[in-house]
């Protein structure tokens, strides 16, 4: 599955880093970080298929997913040709129960990542649960947004 996901271009062949450049520009990231995020986004897409349950991306991976979705024709083609079905994005709703549900889902996603890829998710793209869903005032570690896929 990973090989199929990695083989699908996110940019036109004449501009192989266009997706990563746009992701970097849109998020004030370095191109190097955007390339790492896209690599992890591809792994997240694999997790949506192999985990057997709904999975929750990191904030950075979610930004890549949002950008991919805006390329509607390519995203639909990717879903059809690589995944075999449309992969829906389910944004988080407000409320403490929803926050706790996404927190647990994210923790489970990190476990699925370890099993699927025999490695820990890199913390620069996949922060620890407490950092991703921090409790210090307001959204803390960005736990207010983030979509989940499955």
| Average pLDDT reading | 87
Oligomer kind: single chain
Q: State the shape.
A: globular
Overall number of strands: 2
Q: Please bin the fraction of helical residues.
A: 55-70%
Helix and strand run: HHHHHEHHE
Strands side by side in the biggest sheet: 1-2
What are the low-pLDDT stretches, counting only 5+ consecutive residues below 50?
Answer: 136-146
Please state roughly what percent of the residues sit in beta strands, choosing from under 5%, 5-15%, 15-25%, 25-35%, 35-45% or over 45%. under 5%
Structural class: mainly alpha
Instruction: Determine Rg (CA atoms, Å).
Output: 15 Å
Number of helices: 7
Number of domains: 1
End-to-end gap: 15 Å
Q: For the report, how would you describe the main beta sheet?
A: 2 strands, antiparallel
Outline the structure in words.
By secondary structure, this protein is mostly helical. It has one domain. Helix content is 57%, strand content 3%. The chain has helices at 2-7, 18-27, 31-50, 59-70, 72-83, 96-117, 129-132, and strands at 90-91, 147-148. The chain has a two-stranded antiparallel sheet with strand order 1-2. Helix 2 crosses helix 3 and helix 3 (31-50) crosses helix 6. The longest helix has 22 residues, at 96-117. It is globular and about 45 Å long. 29% of the residues are buried. The model is unreliable at 136-146 (pLDDT under 50).
């Amino acid at each position: 599955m990973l090989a199929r996901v990695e083989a699908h271009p996110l940019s036109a062949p004449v501009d192989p880093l266009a997706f990563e450049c746009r992701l970097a520009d849109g998020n004030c990231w370095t191109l190097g970080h955007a390339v790492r995020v896209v690599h992890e986004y591809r792994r997240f897409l694999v997790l949506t298929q192999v985990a057997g349950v709904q999975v929750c991306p990191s904030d950075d991976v979610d930004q890549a997913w949002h950008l991919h979705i805006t390329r509607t024709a390519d995203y639909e083609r990717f879903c059809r040709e690589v995944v075999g079905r449309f992969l829906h994005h389910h944004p988080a709703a407000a409320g403490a129960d929803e926050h706790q549900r996404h927190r647990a889902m994210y923790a489970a996603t990190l476990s699925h990542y370890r099993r699927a890829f025999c490695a820990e998710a890199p913390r620069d793209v996949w922060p620890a649960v407490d950092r991703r869903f921090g409790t210090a005032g307001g959204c803390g570690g960005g736990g207010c947004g983030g979509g989940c896929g499955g």
